[in-house]
Design brief:
The complex is a heterodimer of chains A (203) and B (281). Chain A is mainly beta and 203 residues long. Helices cover 10% and strands 35% of the residues of chain A. In chain A, the strands form 2 sheets. Chain A has an 8-stranded mixed beta barrel. A two-stranded antiparallel ribbon of chain A has the order 6-7. Chain B is 10% helix and 44% strand. The chains are: A mainly beta (203), B mainly beta (281). At the A-B interface, helix 1, strand 1, strand 6, strand 7 and strand 9 of A face strand 1, strand 2, strand 4, strand 5 and strand 6 of B. Strand 1 of chain A pairs antiparallel with strand 5 of chain B, so a sheet runs across the interface.
Chain lengths: 203, 281
Amino acid sequence: MKRLICAAAAVLLLAGCTTTPAVQPAPQPTSTAPSAAVPDIPRSSALLQAPRQAQPPVTVDIPDAGISVPVVPVGVRPDGLMDIPANVDVAGWYSYGSDPFSDTGTTVIAAHVDSLEYGLGPFADLRNLGSGAQIIVTVAGGSSVTYQVESITSIPKAQLPVTDIFDRAGAQRLALITCGGQFDYDTLTYSDNVVVIAVPVGS
Amino acid sequence: MRYKILSGLAVGLLATVGVAAPAQAISSSSSDVYVVHGIPGLVVDVYVDDALTLEDFTFGATGIAGPLDLAAGDYKIQVFAANADPATDTPAIDVPAAEVPANKSVSLVAQYDASGTPTLGVYVNDISTIAAGQGRVTVRHAAEAGAVAVVVNGANPFGADFENGEEFKGDLPVGDYTAGVAGPGTTTPIIIPTSGTAADISVAEGVNLIVYAVGTGDDLQLITQSISGLHSNPGGVNTGSAGLAADNSPTAIGLSIAAALALLLVAGFAGARVRSARETD
């Protein structure tokens, strides 16, 4: 405790915290100028804070297309690609990114369009959605966000703009991703990703 | 070739490209500079090159300021008690030439040195991209204390002690940890925070969580600064393996033998069916 007092006293002395004179000189017109010129620099908390808890999506419903699929959280595979549930009837939410209730960013949900084991999946119909089609994403706990389709794009996989699609800082959006385009029967892969971008209704 | 399946509204992927500039790229001629208040109990004014830059800067809940975009170069940094007159009063911290490098993230920390004198700690923050599923923890000794050990989940992950002004860092899987500071070469008892109980910290994906041990004597505390946006993205999305939804699907252009074999075998068809498929191909 003694050290603390010494240190605090030293600070006060160094900082020149002497008693303020009882009589202040009359303020000069220019004396307030420096204060007015102080830049507006954002300040944030230095206290230990619990981070926001994610609200993981549990279902995606697209009434127009008769699609209703459960959603599970996923990450990345060892090769760096997004992990996708093997079952075509289950979609994966990229759990390191935004969720529907995040203040910013894109909620990314992807599912296999088909597989040799499970056949054709519901996301095969994504490319046939109409503009403005509604997509309802429900999170654990029952809350939901309704989106409307803004664009559907077929993009060669190698050109998928991952920085944009997996954005965490921009406007709230939903990206549904599956495969399409040409199929390579030697490598059993598709040429393209089909990407549905949707925005919250009312936004 | 990339094409729009649905024109829809005029805005789409292209329109939203570039929403978030990666935090890693700052500027070849300037740096992001944060000012961190690491002296408990003191309200200060911070002057940069004789200009009042932070007024009534308080410890704790509003104790991080920035980022400021400062051109690389030397800056005169002075920290006064709040409302002091810089013309006549003596600054608590007076650094004639703090060097700000180019293209870095820098934290200027008003802190105590090992002997308890207020000083300015200059730290460069690691804003390199973090692997998916991980977060970064940086621990800095900015307290009036000798060598100490960092304790994370009951062990010292860095295997060494560190002194005032030094830092340790590492990338950890996302999750909850307990963290504290103990005497040199030990992991118990916890001396920071002074509660004696390790603090709960959460490592978030793509975030550099910087933990500072600050304070003096028997008022040692932990404060934090977070720099987000350091995440990496998946390399791609591979979402199909049967060709059933392809533009060149079997129904459209005829069934290739390879795909027919693969599909029929997996679907459990007998060998006779395979032969018949070949005959009709």
